[in-house]
From TrEMBL:
Coiled coil: none annotated. PROSITE patterns: RHODANESE_3. It comes from the Eukaryota. This is Rhodanese domain-containing protein. It comes from Westerdykella ornata.
C-alpha cells in the first residue's frame, strides 16, 4: 500500500478525508505537516474545483492523493471515482485508525531515511511540541464529547 514518494511534480502529496464535516470536526490526520482536506466522498468528482476555490490548490492528474474515511468504505468509493476521472497516483489507506497507523509508519520510515520534509522524529520533539500535541488532543477529545452529547440528545 506504500506510495512512491519520489517527487513527480511541484505539489506536495494531498491527504483527503472523505468523511462528513461533523466527523472531520472530531479530528483529522496530517501528512508531512499538512492537515487533511475535508471533501465528502459524494463530492470527490469536484476535487479540482473544491481545491482551487476553497484552498487555492491547483491539482493535476499526476499529483499524489491519499484518501481515508472512518472505515475505508467511502474512501474506496472515492478512489474508484478519481481513477475513473484519470487520477493516476491516488490511494486509499482505509479507515481512520488504519490510516493513522499507515501515515505514522511512513513518517517513521521517512525520518529513518533522512527524507523528512521539515520535520523531526518523535524522539526529537521539544517540550513546546509536546504541549501543542497535548492541546490538539485535548481539543479533539472535547469536540468528540460534544458530538457524543449531541448524538445522545437525538436518541
Amino acid at each position: 500500500m506504500a506510495l512512491d514518494t519520489t517527487p513527480t511534480n511541484k505539489n506536495p502529496p494531498l491527504l483527503i478525508d472523505v468523511r462528513t464535516p461533523s466527523e472531520f470536526s472530531t479530528g483529522y490526520l496530517s501528512l508531512q505537516n499538512t492537515p487533511a482536506i475535508n471533501i465528502e466522498y459524494q463530492d470527490i468528482h469536484q476535487l479540482p474545483h473544491i481545491l482551487r476555490s476553497q484552498h487555492g490548490i491547483e491539482v493535476s492528474k499526476d499529483d499524489d492523493i491519499t484518501l481515508y474515511c472512518r472505515s475505508g468504505r467511502r474512501s474506496g468509493i472515492a478512489l474508484g471515482v478519481l481513477r475513473e476521472l484519470g487520477y493516476a497516483r491516488v490511494r486509499n489507506i482505509g479507515g481512520f485508525e488504519e490510516a493513522r497507523e499507515v501515515l505514522e509508519r511512513e513518517e517513521r520510515e521517512r525520518v529513518q531515511k533522512g527524507n523528512a520534509v521539515g520535520e523531526v522524529g518523535f524522539e526529537g520533539r521539544t517540550e513546546e511540541d509536546e504541549a501543542a500535541v497535548a492541546r490538539r488532543r485535548e481539543a479533539r477529545e472535547k469536540q468528540f464529547a460534544v458530538l457524543l452529547q449531541g448524538l445522545r440528545a437525538e436518541s
